Amino acid sequence: MPQPPRVRPRSRDLFGRRALVTGGSSGLGRAIALELARRGSGVLATARRADRLDALARTAPGIQGVAGDLTDPDFRGRLPGLAADRLGGLDIVVAAAGSGAIGAFGDADPGTCGRILDIDFLAPADLVRASLPLLRRSPDPGIVLVGSILGLHPLPLHGAYCAAKAALRSLAGTLRMELAADQIDVLHVGLGPIESEFWENLLVGRRPTWSRARPMPAERAARAVVDGLVRRRSEVVPGWRAKGFAFAARFMPGLIDAIADRNWRPAVPLRSEPPPAQP
Q1: What is the distance between the alpha carbons of residues 19 and 141, in angstroms, rounded to a whole number?
Q2: Annotated active-site positions, please?
Q3: How does pLDDT run across 31-42, given as a tens digit for each residue?
């Protein structure tokens, strides 16, 4: 006979939970790892920079680090098992690693587009898939997919990034329905500008002059994300600027387009058309 569903409390107790956090060397990933550890969770944080992870582990006794490239399918396939070995199981997966590129889509190198899609969509999707067998054994499992408000409505010069983040949000919705029977919560984060090294680590291009909003502290965003995990929210949009963008994306998308068109065109020269052929 099928087992009756587990009766879960309305809020999640993070004390003693075991979490895997990607992008843990800086920005939101690092802040989430620290916030989870502060609330009593054991954390395995991963990123490419081993020295940053070592420093993070020294900051909080509940955090361990493992360095590797999340775009390596072998590494991300081993991560859930490694987390379970280090922590004694796996309850929470936080996919916070990401990267961006700036430039007109028509001028972009196809390889750059592929790398953005790999980092921002394929890597977290594969990590979640590999984690599911362990999460199904957890008494209270959860998945956090860190997306972007640009996955709600696109802006120019961010083509591949917008596409990847829109796909990630769609994946979160699919997983939420498919994993409901397993009682695995899925939280999508619509992230706006926060204090991070995002602009310093662009694969291509540089920060547009018209994109200078004051960023939200990463620690404040992390608290909002972890609070959403505790309250079993399906989506969190930290900060009033991000919430304003999300509201406009839903109810006034034309306004976003008009503002973006007015701001980006003077900053980016349009490619001139060749003169018409003479008869």
Answers
A1: 10
A2: 161
A3: 999 999 999 999
